[in-house]
Specification:
The chain is built from 22 helices and no strands. The longest helix is centred in the middle third of the chain and has 38 residues. It is an all-alpha fold. It has one domain: Amino acid/polyamine transporter I, CATH 1.20.1740. 73% of the residues lie in helices and 0% in strands.
């Protein structure tokens, strides 16, 4: 019997929790600051409506109909497209391993927030706290240097992740009631404090008043569309898993719209926090599009300048990093849920044991990030997955749904439980068939062009060697692209042991 969400709100909150992650809190404000504030928001909204929401709806609708994770859903559309689903799963594996390390850094900074009490006005001490604790070498060498506070935090991160999803939708439904509401409360508290700071209005003006000349910057469009694509948790098997647990009477159109705009609301709220706080402490021009730099280096400098009271600044630091913890946890466990669902569906495995095994194996692999080389490796891995394999997966998903299947059937699945608020065919069909694959392919080509212009390897300007990029970048890309073939080999080996694949088509799923 397929597990199901206990309620509609459990699905919506879980999906919002997955979509709303660390990128909302730190990358979105940085990009808005970089590209003319309101102008970036304008393009972001267009991308959300034209690309983000249709793509999100497609994944959820297909999964609800088939009651399968990403590979099974793609296989039901077209047997030859199962590999696309494994691309999504592999993306999730790569992302969750390094995301756990970032989560560990957040946990570590939360614990160390008591040190802000003695750093009032000392921006140098605040900015160096994280760097000194993780003991980074800044290069891909330094594997023998280990930060034990990060090790402890990483163990805690994986333990929290497993506890949250050990019982599938039952435990997830209970957890997200807190992990979705708490960060919003924390952000509201920080926003109020930020607005109370002198000069904060300059920050709000920079965030919301558009600099329309920025629309002529092609990088704005690329980054705004990319932010929508990455933020909604598509192309990494999550929404397929969550959609497969939906009941037949769920209203996907309405629920997906709520999820998408909740994601945007939290991003804007985080923007208000960042812009008002940075303006209030005279650091508005210091905002960075780098999320890690913002959270661990730049924002700590702002924290120690918020007031003359070390105790108040310490409390503010605790609130900030607690907010990041609640944002990170449901994003991490949602990725693991997507991986676990795909594997347990394919090989008829016990879901709980599969989840535990994934957490243990990935936990061991993620130990690479507690070394002095961890930050550099994370930088390379994050770049290659986000710039290449995620986009390739998105394009392949859209081609599978738009060109190797009757897309109108997916639209019918979307609209079958809604009477007034429907997804119009004039938006959904062109988006899935043409707009989304073309735009995502364009982003992929754009990244390749920038790669070539940069000398042919990512990170050359930052000191990363060709060897490091090949090992941690291109080899990872190759492994992800070959994931479907690897699964085929495993299936062939298991076939001799009475293993049988589920060969039902889309229409056959509809009859069961």
């Amino acid at each position: 019997m397929r597990e199901k969400w206990s309620s509609r709100s459990a699905f919506i909150l879980a999906s919002i929790g997955s979509a709303v992650g660390l990128g909302n809190a730190w990358r979105f404000p940085g990009l808005a600051a970089k590209y003319g504030g309101g102008a970036f928001l304008f393009v972001y909204l267009i991308a959300m409506l034209v690309i983000g929401i249709p793509l999100l709806m497609m994944e959820i609708a297909v999964a609800r109909h088939t009651r399968k994770g990403a590979p099974g859903s793609m296989r039901a559309i077209n047997k030859k497209m199962e590999g696309v689903g494994w691309l999504a799963v592999s993306n999730g594996i790569g992302i969750s391993i390094y995301y756990a390390a970032v989560f560990a850094w957040v946990i570590m900074m939360f614990v160390l927030s008591y040190k802000f009490a003695g750093m009032t006005g000392d921006t140098d001490a605040a900015s160096s706290l994280w760097m000194e604790t993780i003991k980074t070498t800044g290069t891909t060498s330094g594997f023998t240097t280990i930060s034990w506070p990060v090790v402890a935090s990483l163990v805690a991160a994986w333990a929290i992740c497993y506890v949250c999803i050990r019982n599938g939708t039952t435990s997830v439904g209970k957890v997200v009631k807190f992990t979705v509401s708490l960060p919003v409360i924390c952000l509201l508290i920080m926003a109020v404090r930020g607005i109370m700071l002198p000069g904060s209005m300059a920050g709000l003006a920079k965030l919301f008043i558009p600099d329309w000349t920025a629309l002529g910057n092609s990088n704005l469009w690329v980054d705004a569309i990319g932010q929508v694509f990455y933020s909604l948790s598509t192309s990494m098997a999550i929404m397929f898993a969550y959609g497969s647990f939906l009941s037949d009477d769920s209203n996907i159109v309405v629920d997906t719209t709520i999820i998408a705009f909740s994601d945007m609301f939290v991003s804007i709220l985080a923007g208000i926090v960042m812009f008002t706080t940075m303006a209030g402490v005279g650091m508005l021009d210091n905002m960075s599009a780098s999320g890690i730099a913002t959270a661990f280096i730049i924002y700590p400098q702002a924290i120690v300048k918020i007031s003359d009271s070390g105790i108040f600044n310490m409390i503010f630091a605790f609130i900030f990093y607690f907010c990041l913890i609640t944002l990170a946890v449901d994003s991490l466990f949602s990725i693991i849920e997507g991986i676990s669902t795909a594997l347990s569906d394919k090989f008829n495995l016990n879901k709980k044991k599969t989840t535990l095994t994934i957490c243990v194996i990935e936990g061991v692999i993620s130990l690479i990030y507690v070394t002095g080389a961890g930050l550099a490796i994370l930088d390379i891995v994050d770049y290659f997955i986000n710039s290449y394999t995620l986009l390739i997966t998105g394009v392949c998903e859209m081609i599978a749904a738009g060109w190797f299947f009757k897309t109108a059937k997916i639209l019918d699945e979307l609209n079958r439980n809604t009477k007034k608020f429907k997804m119009p065919s004039w938006l959904f069909l062109p988006s899935i068939k043409v707009i989304s694959p073309v735009v995502l392919a364009g982003l992929f080509i754009w990244n390749l062009i920038n790669l070539i212009k940069g000398g042919g390897i990512y990170g050359a300007a930052d000191g990363y060697s060709l060897k490091a990029n090949i090992i941690f970048g291109w080899c990872l890309v190759a492994l992800i692209l070959l994931s479907g073939l690897i699964i085929k080999i495993i299936v062939k080996l298991k076939s001799s042991k009475d293993f049988k694949e589920d060969d039902r088509t889309w229409d056959e799923f509809g009859k069961t």
